[in-house]
Amino acid sequence: MSMDETIEQLEDKVKRAAALVRHLREEKQSLEQDLEAARDSLREAERRGEALESETSEAGGDGSAEEVERLNGMLEELQQEREDVRRRIGKLVELLEGLD
User: Fold this and answer.
1) pLDDT tens by residue, 64-91
2) pTM of the entire predicted model
3) CA nearest 78: which of 37, 44, 38?
4) How far, in whole angstroms, is CA 81 from its chain's centroid?
5) Total domain count for the chain?
6) What is the DSSP string of 32-53?
7) Which domain holds residue 87?
8) Tens digits of per-residue pLDDT, 21-48?
9) Are 60 and 72 in contact (CB under 8 A)?
10) Distance separating alpha carbons of residues 57 and 49, to the nearest angstrom
């Protein structure tokens, strides 16, 4: 193998490595954006859950049984949504940690 061929192979490897680094940086940025969006969703779900808990406790003595049941259903839905968001955030964090 000549010196020129060796240098060409090295250039190709460097170009592929640079392209891979570029791709990984773009993927990392995308994952960071997804993570921030998931965190925003989690904060919103927590806020809505707290509001529902407050409404439920306020309606406990004065509200109808149907209203309390409806609010409890909504609260369970929000708690499930919050757990889903937490799980997604966990996966995104694992992916980001693997990129560093």
Assistant:
1) 778 778 888 888 888 888 888 888 888 8
2) 0.53
3) 44
4) 12
5) 1
6) HHHHHHHHHHHHHHHHHHHHHH
7) 3-99
8) 888 888 888 888 888 888 888 888 888 8
9) no
10) 12
